[in-house]
Amino acid sequence: MIKKLDLNGRLTGFVGATFSLFVVFASSSAPIPLLNTYLKTLNLTSGDLSMTAVTYFVGCVLSLLVFARVSNHLGRRPVALATLGIAVIGCIIFGYVQNASMLLIGRFIQGIASGLASSTITTYIADNAPTSPKWISAAVISGAPVVGLSFGAFGAAVIQEYGFGSLSVIYMILIALLAFCAVLIAVSPETVTPKRGVISSLIPQVSVPKNIRHLLPAAGSIFVGTWAIGGFYQAFSSSITAELLNTNSVMIAAAVFACLMTPYAIGGWISGRFDSNNAQSIGISAFFLSIVALIYSLKVSAMIPFFMATVFAGISQGLAFTGSIRSLLDKIGQDDRAGLLSSIYIISYSGAAIPNMIVARLAGGFNLFEIAVGYGLLVTLVWITALFSLYVNKKRDFLRE
């Protein structure tokens, strides 16, 4: 293991990895506000929209299962550069998408890139993160993707709404940004010593160190609940805008998605003001209440209350998710980071993919509001599970003392 890294080199690595994580997720979100456009031009159905989310999340989970530990053997930088290259391929496909099959393939490729970013690039961030403040690593790991998702969605919406060019323009811009990220990564220091065993590392393995397994029920339920709502917004934000908020504006569709994602970073910052246990319990409770308000605002087609509820949901999920990551990361060493982070994101992406897969099969029997209610019931179950698990863990720690 490389023990001594130049301080400036670490800063470059931290900034480069953070920006790379941001841009990879920006590239993955660019198609989201345009899905209603694709719905019309490619003759898609609501089930097809759910499948775009499913193929994306399947790509994420597959890459996490197979490639999550490769960077321990090949090094962080080579795998990070490969991740950026795969993201470029996804942008190229979307730059020329002409049918539903290309749409699904493009989302799958973007999922592969996002899954790799969620393991390798987040681990590279953790390796290079400043030691103070202590919460910065978890906040960046949880916040950079969601801010990137908002940036990509808004960028695509602005170009579409104001006619700055064809839909391919946003993907050309993203390709240029991904190339810049590659330069930053190329000049950053390697943080691990390459070693043998890369083939065996491809065998799917979920790794959670024994000393933190008792924390997983609470953290895992939070990962599932918050990302399930993120998956709902990814698949249906443009449909919500058209059907329930009565507007076809692509900018409004992007705003719907961004209002959930961008405040996530605020929640991550707030989590640093609490210990991880309180961040989880306060965050998931506020998230539950926000979803209740959100569903009611959809029922009465109230746009402003809907946006307010979405913003509060974004803040509270950032608080809960970052607190959950901190509760796990703070108790492990560097060698366990890649495996743990991949496990965290496998749980998270599965929490987003499985509900969307169910919706894809059942979409014909339910309207959009009823689908939203179904997600609300899932969040209710998650809220109860998380609070109970946190209580059990707190009691366990008390008895140990």
UniProtKB/TrEMBL annotation:
Cited SUPFAM superfamilies: MFS general substrate transporter
Molecular-function annotations in GO: transmembrane transporter activity
Compartment(s) of residence: Cell membrane
GO cellular component labels: plasma membrane
Spans through the membrane: 50-67, 79-98, 104-126, 138-159, 165-187, 215-236, 248-270, 282-298, 304-326, 338-359, 371-392
InterPro entries reported in the protein's UniProt record: MFS, MFS_dom, MFS_Efflux_Transporters, MFS_trans_sf
Keywords: Cell membrane, Membrane, Transmembrane, Transmembrane helix
Pfam family, one: MFS_1
Lineage: superkingdom: Archaea
Topology term for the membrane: Multi-pass membrane protein
Major facilitator superfamily (MFS) profile domain residues: 13-397
Main location: membrane
Protein name per Swiss-Prot or TrEMBL: General substrate transporter
Species for this entry: Methanococcus maripaludis (strain DSM 14266 / JCM 13030 / NBRC 101832 / S2 / LL)
Organismal lineage: Archaea, Methanobacteriati, Methanobacteriota, Methanomada group, Methanococci
